[in-house]
Amino acid sequence: MRPRRSLAARLGDPAAGPLVLDGGLSNQLAAQGADLTDPLWTARLLRDGPGEIAAAHAAYARAGARVLISSSYQASHEGFGRAGAGRAEASALLARSVELARTAADAAPAEVWVAASVGPYGAVLADGSEYRGRYGLSPRRLERFHRPRIEALAAAGPDVLALETVPDTDEAQALLAAVAECGVPVWLSYSVSGGRTRAGQPLADAFALAAGRDQVVAVGVNCCAPGDVGPAVALAARVTGKPVVVYPNSGEEWDAGARGWRGPVRYDPASAPAWAAAGARLIGGCCRVGPETIAELARRLGPG
Protein backbone atom coordinates (compact mmCIF):
# COMPACT_ATOMS: atom_id res chain seq x y z
CA MET A 1 0.00 0.00 0.00
CA ARG A 2 1.51 3.32 -1.04
CA PRO A 3 1.94 5.53 2.05
CA ARG A 4 -0.59 8.30 2.52
CA ARG A 5 1.90 10.54 4.28
CA SER A 6 5.60 11.25 4.19
CA LEU A 7 8.00 9.23 6.29
CA ALA A 8 8.98 12.41 8.14
CA ALA A 9 5.34 13.03 9.06
CA ARG A 10 4.97 9.44 10.24
CA LEU A 11 8.12 9.65 12.37
CA GLY A 12 6.94 12.92 13.87
CA ASP A 13 3.56 11.55 14.95
CA PRO A 14 3.75 11.37 18.75
CA ALA A 15 0.81 8.94 18.88
CA ALA A 16 2.46 6.38 16.59
CA GLY A 17 4.98 3.76 17.61
CA PRO A 18 8.27 2.93 15.92
CA LEU A 19 8.38 1.56 12.40
CA VAL A 20 9.89 -1.85 11.69
CA LEU A 21 12.57 -1.97 9.02
CA ASP A 22 13.43 -5.07 7.04
CA GLY A 23 16.45 -7.28 7.68
CA GLY A 24 19.50 -8.33 5.71
CA LEU A 25 18.77 -8.57 2.01
CA SER A 26 21.85 -10.68 1.26
CA ASN A 27 21.03 -13.45 3.73
CA GLN A 28 17.46 -13.71 2.43
CA LEU A 29 18.71 -13.87 -1.15
CA ALA A 30 21.20 -16.56 -0.14
CA ALA A 31 18.40 -18.49 1.55
CA GLN A 32 16.52 -18.33 -1.76
CA GLY A 33 19.54 -19.89 -3.49
CA ALA A 34 20.96 -16.77 -5.15
CA ASP A 35 24.67 -16.63 -6.00
CA LEU A 36 26.21 -13.57 -4.35
CA THR A 37 29.89 -14.20 -5.11
CA ASP A 38 30.05 -11.50 -7.79
CA PRO A 39 31.81 -8.20 -6.88
CA LEU A 40 28.45 -6.46 -7.40
CA TRP A 41 27.04 -8.66 -4.60
CA THR A 42 23.24 -8.25 -4.37
CA ALA A 43 23.28 -5.56 -7.07
CA ARG A 44 24.17 -8.20 -9.69
CA LEU A 45 20.64 -9.50 -9.44
CA LEU A 46 19.22 -6.16 -10.56
CA ARG A 47 20.48 -7.19 -13.97
CA ASP A 48 20.44 -10.98 -13.84
CA GLY A 49 17.70 -11.90 -11.38
CA PRO A 50 15.32 -9.11 -10.41
CA GLY A 51 12.67 -11.67 -9.48
CA GLU A 52 14.88 -12.90 -6.66
CA ILE A 53 15.11 -9.38 -5.25
CA ALA A 54 11.34 -8.93 -5.55
CA ALA A 55 10.80 -12.18 -3.65
CA ALA A 56 13.16 -11.12 -0.87
CA HIS A 57 11.40 -7.79 -0.43
CA ALA A 58 8.05 -9.58 -0.35
CA ALA A 59 9.31 -11.94 2.37
CA TYR A 60 10.15 -9.00 4.61
CA ALA A 61 6.87 -7.25 3.88
CA ARG A 62 5.01 -10.43 4.89
CA ALA A 63 7.08 -10.52 8.09
CA GLY A 64 5.79 -7.08 9.06
CA ALA A 65 8.48 -4.71 7.80
CA ARG A 66 7.07 -1.24 7.21
CA VAL A 67 10.18 0.08 5.46
CA LEU A 68 11.90 -1.85 2.66
CA ILE A 69 15.49 -0.96 1.78
CA SER A 70 16.48 -1.26 -1.87
CA SER A 71 19.17 -3.52 -3.30
CA SER A 72 21.41 -0.62 -4.34
CA TYR A 73 23.90 -0.72 -1.44
CA GLN A 74 26.79 -1.89 -3.60
CA ALA A 75 25.48 -0.48 -6.88
CA SER A 76 27.25 2.26 -8.80
CA HIS A 77 27.85 3.41 -12.35
CA GLU A 78 31.49 2.37 -11.99
CA GLY A 79 30.64 -1.10 -10.72
CA PHE A 80 28.06 -1.74 -13.40
CA GLY A 81 30.50 -0.33 -15.95
CA ARG A 82 33.07 -2.98 -14.99
CA ALA A 83 30.34 -5.55 -15.68
CA GLY A 84 29.79 -4.13 -19.17
CA ALA A 85 26.85 -1.78 -18.56
CA GLY A 86 26.86 1.73 -19.98
CA ARG A 87 25.88 4.71 -17.86
CA ALA A 88 22.30 4.78 -19.11
CA GLU A 89 21.83 1.10 -18.27
CA ALA A 90 23.49 1.60 -14.89
CA SER A 91 21.11 4.45 -14.08
CA ALA A 92 18.18 2.26 -15.11
CA LEU A 93 19.40 -0.55 -12.86
CA LEU A 94 19.68 1.81 -9.92
CA ALA A 95 16.12 2.95 -10.60
CA ARG A 96 15.01 -0.68 -10.84
CA SER A 97 16.19 -1.25 -7.27
CA VAL A 98 13.65 1.32 -6.08
CA GLU A 99 10.93 -0.01 -8.37
CA LEU A 100 11.32 -3.58 -7.08
CA ALA A 101 11.01 -2.44 -3.47
CA ARG A 102 8.03 -0.23 -4.37
CA THR A 103 6.20 -3.13 -6.01
CA ALA A 104 6.53 -5.20 -2.84
CA ALA A 105 5.50 -2.23 -0.71
CA ASP A 106 2.42 -1.54 -2.82
CA ALA A 107 1.32 -5.17 -2.49
CA ALA A 108 1.40 -5.04 1.33
CA PRO A 109 -1.86 -4.50 3.23
CA ALA A 110 -0.36 -1.77 5.43
CA GLU A 111 1.51 1.45 4.64
CA VAL A 112 5.06 0.51 3.63
CA TRP A 113 7.76 3.03 2.79
CA VAL A 114 10.74 2.53 0.46
CA ALA A 115 14.27 3.53 1.38
CA ALA A 116 16.83 3.70 -1.44
CA SER A 117 20.13 2.38 -0.12
CA VAL A 118 23.20 4.56 -0.68
CA GLY A 119 26.10 2.49 0.56
CA PRO A 120 29.56 3.88 1.26
CA TYR A 121 32.36 4.14 -1.29
CA GLY A 122 34.12 1.22 0.38
CA ALA A 123 31.22 -1.11 -0.41
CA VAL A 124 31.70 -0.51 -4.12
CA LEU A 125 35.37 -1.47 -3.74
CA ALA A 126 34.16 -4.88 -2.45
CA ASP A 127 37.23 -5.26 -0.25
CA GLY A 128 35.80 -4.62 3.21
CA SER A 129 37.08 -1.06 3.40
CA GLU A 130 33.61 0.23 4.32
CA TYR A 131 34.44 -1.12 7.78
CA ARG A 132 37.59 0.99 7.96
CA GLY A 133 36.82 4.24 6.15
CA ARG A 134 39.55 6.80 5.58
CA TYR A 135 39.97 5.80 1.95
CA GLY A 136 42.49 8.52 1.24
CA LEU A 137 39.95 10.50 -0.81
CA SER A 138 38.81 14.02 0.00
CA PRO A 139 35.18 14.75 0.87
CA ARG A 140 34.93 16.60 -2.48
CA ARG A 141 36.10 13.52 -4.38
CA LEU A 142 33.68 11.30 -2.46
CA GLU A 143 30.86 13.73 -3.21
CA ARG A 144 31.61 13.51 -6.95
CA PHE A 145 31.47 9.71 -6.72
CA HIS A 146 28.15 9.57 -4.87
CA ARG A 147 26.25 12.30 -6.71
CA PRO A 148 25.36 10.40 -9.94
CA ARG A 149 24.05 7.34 -8.09
CA ILE A 150 22.07 9.55 -5.71
CA GLU A 151 20.54 11.41 -8.66
CA ALA A 152 19.51 8.13 -10.31
CA LEU A 153 17.99 6.77 -7.11
CA ALA A 154 16.20 10.02 -6.25
CA ALA A 155 14.66 10.21 -9.71
CA ALA A 156 13.04 6.80 -9.12
CA GLY A 157 10.89 8.25 -6.33
CA PRO A 158 11.87 6.57 -3.05
CA ASP A 159 10.36 7.85 0.18
CA VAL A 160 13.80 8.34 1.71
CA LEU A 161 17.46 7.82 0.86
CA ALA A 162 19.28 5.60 3.35
CA LEU A 163 22.83 6.93 3.67
CA GLU A 164 23.92 3.78 5.44
CA THR A 165 26.92 1.94 6.87
CA VAL A 166 28.89 5.18 6.76
CA PRO A 167 32.31 4.54 8.34
CA ASP A 168 33.60 8.06 8.96
CA THR A 169 32.71 11.72 9.11
CA ASP A 170 34.53 12.57 5.86
CA GLU A 171 32.13 10.38 3.92
CA ALA A 172 29.15 11.62 5.93
CA GLN A 173 30.04 15.18 4.93
CA ALA A 174 30.36 14.12 1.29
CA LEU A 175 27.03 12.31 1.29
CA LEU A 176 25.19 15.19 2.93
CA ALA A 177 26.61 17.55 0.31
CA ALA A 178 25.68 15.18 -2.52
CA VAL A 179 22.04 14.88 -1.42
CA ALA A 180 21.49 18.57 -0.70
CA GLU A 181 19.73 19.31 -4.00
CA CYS A 182 18.09 15.94 -4.67
CA GLY A 183 14.69 16.80 -3.17
CA VAL A 184 14.37 13.57 -1.17
CA PRO A 185 14.63 13.24 2.64
CA VAL A 186 17.45 11.10 4.01
CA TRP A 187 18.52 9.18 7.03
CA LEU A 188 22.17 9.02 8.04
CA SER A 189 23.37 5.80 9.63
CA TYR A 190 26.91 5.03 10.74
CA SER A 191 28.67 1.71 11.11
CA VAL A 192 30.26 1.84 14.54
CA SER A 193 32.41 -0.02 17.03
CA GLY A 194 31.77 0.96 20.62
CA GLY A 195 31.30 4.70 20.92
CA ARG A 196 33.17 5.57 17.74
CA THR A 197 32.79 5.36 13.99
CA ARG A 198 34.68 2.56 12.26
CA ALA A 199 37.35 5.14 11.45
CA GLY A 200 37.68 5.98 15.14
CA GLN A 201 35.92 9.34 15.40
CA PRO A 202 33.71 10.05 18.44
CA LEU A 203 30.08 9.29 17.66
CA ALA A 204 28.94 12.58 19.19
CA ASP A 205 30.93 14.43 16.52
CA ALA A 206 29.58 12.18 13.78
CA PHE A 207 25.95 12.60 14.81
CA ALA A 208 26.39 16.36 15.14
CA LEU A 209 26.80 16.63 11.36
CA ALA A 210 23.07 15.87 11.04
CA ALA A 211 21.89 18.36 13.65
CA GLY A 212 19.95 21.28 12.20
CA ARG A 213 19.56 19.71 8.75
CA ASP A 214 15.86 19.49 7.94
CA GLN A 215 16.51 17.05 5.09
CA VAL A 216 17.82 14.47 7.59
CA VAL A 217 14.72 12.83 9.08
CA ALA A 218 16.59 10.28 11.21
CA VAL A 219 20.13 9.50 12.35
CA GLY A 220 21.62 6.42 13.91
CA VAL A 221 23.64 3.22 13.41
CA ASN A 222 23.52 0.03 11.38
CA CYS A 223 25.67 -2.97 10.48
CA CYS A 224 27.07 -3.02 14.01
CA ALA A 225 26.97 -5.33 17.01
CA PRO A 226 23.62 -5.32 18.82
CA GLY A 227 25.37 -4.30 22.02
CA ASP A 228 26.43 -1.00 20.43
CA VAL A 229 22.86 0.08 19.75
CA GLY A 230 21.58 1.17 23.17
CA PRO A 231 24.29 3.77 23.89
CA ALA A 232 24.16 5.03 20.30
CA VAL A 233 20.40 5.61 20.45
CA ALA A 234 20.63 7.77 23.54
CA LEU A 235 23.57 9.73 22.14
CA ALA A 236 22.02 10.32 18.72
CA ALA A 237 18.76 11.53 20.25
CA ARG A 238 20.58 13.89 22.62
CA VAL A 239 23.00 15.34 20.05
CA THR A 240 20.54 15.82 17.17
CA GLY A 241 17.04 15.88 18.68
CA LYS A 242 15.96 13.76 15.71
CA PRO A 243 14.26 10.37 15.45
CA VAL A 244 16.82 7.57 15.63
CA VAL A 245 17.27 4.69 13.17
CA VAL A 246 18.93 1.43 14.25
CA TYR A 247 19.44 -1.87 12.45
CA PRO A 248 22.33 -3.94 13.80
CA ASN A 249 23.71 -7.24 12.56
CA SER A 250 22.92 -10.61 14.12
CA GLY A 251 26.01 -10.37 16.34
CA GLU A 252 27.85 -13.14 14.52
CA GLU A 253 31.31 -12.31 13.19
CA TRP A 254 32.60 -12.81 9.67
CA ASP A 255 35.71 -15.02 9.42
CA ALA A 256 37.39 -13.87 6.23
CA GLY A 257 39.86 -16.78 6.24
CA ALA A 258 37.18 -19.44 6.57
CA ARG A 259 34.73 -17.46 4.43
CA GLY A 260 31.97 -18.00 6.96
CA TRP A 261 30.21 -16.63 10.03
CA ARG A 262 31.18 -17.66 13.54
CA GLY A 263 30.06 -16.98 17.08
CA PRO A 264 26.60 -16.82 18.63
CA VAL A 265 23.61 -14.80 17.48
CA ARG A 266 23.26 -11.82 19.83
CA TYR A 267 20.40 -9.97 18.16
CA ASP A 268 17.43 -10.17 20.51
CA PRO A 269 14.14 -8.53 19.47
CA ALA A 270 13.35 -8.27 23.19
CA SER A 271 15.83 -5.35 23.28
CA ALA A 272 13.81 -3.31 20.79
CA PRO A 273 11.25 -1.81 23.22
CA ALA A 274 14.11 -0.32 25.26
CA TRP A 275 15.64 1.12 22.08
CA ALA A 276 12.28 2.61 21.21
CA ALA A 277 11.89 4.11 24.67
CA ALA A 278 15.29 5.80 24.25
CA GLY A 279 14.29 7.45 20.96
CA ALA A 280 14.57 4.84 18.18
CA ARG A 281 11.73 5.30 15.68
CA LEU A 282 13.05 3.05 12.90
CA ILE A 283 14.19 -0.39 14.09
CA GLY A 284 15.25 -3.38 12.02
CA GLY A 285 18.17 -5.64 11.26
CA CYS A 286 21.15 -5.84 8.95
CA CYS A 287 23.43 -8.77 8.04
CA ARG A 288 22.15 -12.21 9.06
CA VAL A 289 18.87 -10.89 10.44
CA GLY A 290 16.12 -12.64 8.49
CA PRO A 291 12.33 -12.50 8.11
CA GLU A 292 11.64 -14.69 11.15
CA THR A 293 13.51 -12.26 13.40
CA ILE A 294 11.80 -9.27 11.78
CA ALA A 295 8.43 -10.96 12.37
CA GLU A 296 9.28 -11.32 16.07
CA LEU A 297 10.45 -7.71 16.15
CA ALA A 298 7.12 -6.61 14.65
CA ARG A 299 5.21 -8.60 17.27
CA ARG A 300 7.13 -6.95 20.08
CA LEU A 301 6.85 -3.41 18.72
CA GLY A 302 3.22 -3.62 17.64
CA PRO A 303 1.57 -2.66 14.38
CA GLY A 304 3.27 0.75 14.13
UniProtKB/TrEMBL annotation:
Species of provenance: Streptomyces yaizuensis
InterPro entries in the record: HCY_dom, HCY_dom_sf, Hcy_S-methyltransferase
Alphabetical list of NCBIfam families matching this protein: PRK09485.1
Keyword Metal-binding: yes
Full protein name: Homocysteine S-methyltransferase
Ligand binding (Zn(2+)): C223, C286, C287
Keyword terms: Metal-binding, Methyltransferase, Transferase, Zinc
Pfam families: S-methyl_trans (PF02574)
Gene from which this protein is expressed: mmuM
Cofactor: Zn(2+)
PROSITE patterns, alphabetized: HCY
Domain Hcy-binding: 7-301
UniProt KW GTP-binding keyword: no
PANTHER family xref list: HOMOCYSTEINE S-METHYLTRANSFERASE-LIKE ISOFORM 1, ZGC:172121
Gene3D superfamilies linked: Homocysteine-binding-like domain (3.20.20.330)
